[in-house]
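Key result, reporting period 2: structure in, sequence out.
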């Protein structure tokens, strides 16, 4: 089963998780990380790292964030490069993640990423999709190493 780490500004992450659990019951491998004004990037990173390890059963973890480019998205992006099977999604809204709950058991992390972006509004994206628009920067001297 894919783990979920929902991370949003203020108390929105916990509100989303509470709504989901009200409808579906307790969601295993799912954690909320709220990002409050004044919270340091270091503390947010530690909180999200804890949530990642609590939700990862080996099938992958999906970071669900509210805004592309915001602190939760940036921290999740950095963490995803160090852990295989992690995907970062931005622009989530309750109706979309509600539709995605049943797919946690059946899809791989990359299939889940593609499905949520396809079903979402134009504001829903993923780190992977953003990287396809802007390929990684490569230094020319790295191309010509013997």
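The corresponding designed sequence is given below.
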């Amino acid at each position: 089963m894919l783990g979920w780490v929902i991370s949003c500004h203020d108390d929105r992450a916990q509100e989303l998780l509470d709504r989901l659990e009200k409808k579906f019951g307790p969601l295993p491998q799912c954690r909320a990380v709220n990002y409050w004004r004044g919270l340091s990037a270091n503390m947010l990173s530690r909180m999200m790292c804890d949530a990642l390890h609590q939700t990862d059963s080996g099938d992958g973890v999906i970071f669900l964030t509210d805004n592309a480019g915001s602190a939760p998205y940036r921290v999740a992006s950095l963490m995803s490069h160090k852990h295989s099977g992690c995907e970062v999604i931005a622009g989530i809204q309750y109706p979309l993640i509600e539709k995605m709950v049943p797919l946690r058991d059946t899809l791989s992390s990359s299939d889940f990423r593609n499905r949520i972006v396809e079903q979402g509004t134009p504001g829903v994206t993923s780190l992977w999709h953003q990287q396809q628009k802007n390929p990684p920067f490569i230094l020319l001297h790295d191309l010509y190493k013997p």
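The chain has one domain: 3-132. The helical segments are 12-24, 41-55, 71-80, 94-100, 109-119, 127-133, 140-143. This case is discussed further under Risks and Mitigation.
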